[in-house]
Amino acid sequence: MLAFLAASSPLATSASVLDILAVPEPPPPLTGAGDLLWLWAKVIAFLAFLGSGALLLNHFYKRKRLGVKVNATGKIHLADTCALGNRQFLVVAEFEKERHLLGVSQNGINHLSQLKDSNAAEDDFEKALGSAQKSSDHTGGGNH
Question: SS3 helix, strand, coil % of the chain, rounded to 5?
């Protein structure tokens, strides 16, 4: 039908028929500095969006993998975790002032030992160091 309209001479010269039959021009290429800057801004924004999504997924994956529920008012929390491989972990769990070393695997959880308080361990080291210095002072065998 468009070919028939184009073939008739009175209608062929009208602007509306020429607009219908016109082939649209491709958009101009990005040549200006502003267009190039806008393109880079979109690329950087997209990469930032992907990066933030990856961080968010990583955060939720770690929480789910350890099975830790976030409870700020709870008395039990995990002080440290060490992955041994094959779904086996060493875990330091704290309850009030007590610390326990636990072995966690697919088959269960084993209590390995009760740990000393870290502050007590530092005090014990300072006492041992002080007694060693005193004994070296009494014997006169200090390294100078």
Answer: 50, 20, 25
The pTM of this model reads: 0.37
**Which residue has tokens 């080291």?**
125
5 φ, ψ to 5°? -65, -35
14 alpha carbon, distance to own chain's centre: 63
Q: Which residues pair with 95 in a beta bridge?
A: 76, 98
In the chain, what is the straight-line distance between the N-terminal and C-terminal CA atoms, in Å? Answer: 109
Cβ pair 108, 119 in contact under 8 A: no
Contact of 111 with 104, CB cutoff 8 Å: no
Q: What is the pLDDT of residues 34-65, one digit of tens each?
A: 788 888 999 999 999 999 999 999 888 777 65
* Count of CB atoms situated within 10 Å of the CB of 78: 14
